[in-house]
Specification:
Layout (H helix, E strand, L loop, with lengths): L2 H11 L23 E5 L3 E2 L2 H5 L4 H12 L10 E5 L14 E2 L2 E4 H7 L6 E7 H12 L17 E3 L3 E6 L8 E6 L2 E2 L11 E7 H4 L6 H4 L11 E2 L7 H12 L12 E4 L10
Parallel strand pairs: 3-11, 8-13
Antiparallel strand pairs: 1-5, 2-4, 3-7, 6-11, 6-12, 8-9, 9-10
Helix pairs in contact: 3-8
């Protein structure tokens, strides 16, 4: 059974609390050494959909950072990396995890959370596409004072190079009020100059139009002028790249912590459970 097929079956059939599914023993680990510690979390990381798709999330940020840096040794490294919140899954192979406790993170758990085995591609986007991408990301955020019933899986987590200020009082298409990449403001509204390009690393699921990004990215992934490059390391697989970055970056003395890369104004916030 392939990883994408397994992911689809899990997403469709796994019911919280019922343990292993009774087909082809899907409880088999996804990596050779699932108990290997690859890094440390400095705080609890919540995996439920409101935390993965409607707020900053440490694992989403980890993956976006890993994508941004995967081509650092090439002639065209990325300016930023992104991960869609829908790629962060609470459904494990045999158990549903609503959160990950602070402390050691194993390779097996990370691969269950980042389950879908997408390839990471780095590509040039125009300034208009970059802004449209982030407007699409936050267009479905729920305004303050309302519940968050079905958060949008296309909400994007961003790498360390990028910060956004989002205001949910504004209509769709006007919610991004500030956007900085590598410390430089992106003009809002964006310039129409097609030479203004940003090199973005993302899962091929998004570049191929997943989560409604097709009208924004168009054929950029097949356009030689956009210089699309699939990551060469670790077969280009998103979870492998994130795991290697975690191992290299977050030892016990410097554990992973969530950063406030996206500032939310007048938006609903998921309620973090008290412990």
């Amino acid at each position: 059974m392939t990883r994408p097929l397994l992911a689809a079956l899990l997403a469709a059939a796994l019911v919280p609390g019922l343990g292993c599914l009774a087909y082809n023993d899907p409880c088999q680990p996804l990596v050779d050494n699932p108990d290997a510690v690859i890094g440390f979390l400095g705080e609890e990381v919540f995996l439920d959909r409101p935390f993965a798709r409607h707020d900053n999330n440490a694992l989403g940020q980890l993956a976006a950072d890993a994508f941004q840096h995967v081509e650092d040794d090439s002639a065209d490294p990325a300016n930023l990396g992104i991960l869609n919140g829908g790629a962060i899954r609470a459904e494990g192979l045999c158990v549903t995890r609503t959160s990950l406790r602070a402390g050691a993170l194993t390779d097996g758990v990370l691969h269950e959370v980042l389950l879908f085995e997408n390839r990471v591609v780095t590509v040039d986007l125009t300034e208009q596409e970059l802004v449209d991408m982030f407007e699409h990301s936050v267009g479905s955020l729920t305004p303050a004072g309302q519940p968050i019933p079905t958060p949008f899986g296309g909400f994007l987590h961003v790498s360390e190079s990028t910060t956004l200020r989002v205001d949910c009082e504004y209509p769709r298409g006007q919610r991004v009020r500030e956007l900085l990449v590598n410390g430089s403001p992106v003009p809002l509204p964006p310039r129409t100059d097609p030479s203004a390009r940003y090199r973005v690393a993302m899962p091929d699921f998004l570049l191929n139009g997943g989560d409604g990004y097709g009208p924004i990215f168009g054929s950029a992934g097949q356009d030689p002028d956009r210089n699309p490059v699939q990551a060469r390391k670790l077969s280009g697989v998103d979870s492998n790249i994130a795991a290697a970055y975690m191992k290299a970056t977050y030892p016990e003395a410097r554990p992973l912590l969530e950063a406030g890369r996206i500032t939310f104004l007048n938006c609903a916030k998921p309620l973090r459970p008290s412990r």
